[in-house]
C-alpha cells in the first residue's frame, strides 16, 4: 500500500497486478473505481483519476489491500 501525500481529492490511483493476490477488498471498498479481471481475478483499475467524492472509498481500498498492490498519488493542491 502506498499513500503519497495527503492533499484533498482522490488523486491518481494505480495497481501493480504482479503484486495483486485477487482478494477483492478494493472492489468491496470502491466498486466504481476497481474491478477484478474475470480470467485471473486480479485488480483492474476502472478510473485512474477518481472524483473527489470517491476519495474516501479509494483511500479505504488502498489501505485494505492485503498485498499492497495499490498506489494512490495525491494531486498537488
UniProtKB/TrEMBL annotation:
Keyword RNA-binding attached: no
Q: Name one Pfam family in it.
A: Fer4_13
Cofactor(s) this protein requires: [3Fe-4S] cluster
Report if keyword Ribosomal protein is assigned.
Answer: no
Q: Which UniProt keywords apply?
A: 3Fe-4S, Electron transport, Iron, Iron-sulfur, Metal-binding, Transport
> Out of the domains of life, which is the source?
Bacteria
Instruction: Tell me the ranges covered by the 4Fe-4S ferredoxin-type domain, including all copies.
Output: 11-39
Q: Which SUPFAM superfamilies match?
A: 4Fe-4S ferredoxins
Q: What does this protein do?
A: Ferredoxins are iron-sulfur proteins that transfer electrons in a wide variety of metabolic reactions.
Q: What is this protein called?
A: Ferredoxin
Amino acid at each position: 500500500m502506498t499513500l503519497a501525500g495527503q492533499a484533498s481529492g482522490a488523486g491518481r490511483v494505480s495497481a501493480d497486478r504482479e503484486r495483486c493476490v485477487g482478494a477483492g477488498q478494493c472492489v468491496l471498498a470502491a466498486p466504481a473505481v476497481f474491478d477484478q479481471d474475470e480470467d485471473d481475478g486480479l485488480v483492474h483499475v476502472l478510473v485512474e483519476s477518481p472524483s473527489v467524492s470517491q476519495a474516501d472509498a479509494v483511500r479505504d481500498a488502498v489501505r485494505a489491500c492485503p498485498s499492497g498492490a495499490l498506489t494512490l498519488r495525491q494531486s498537488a493542491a
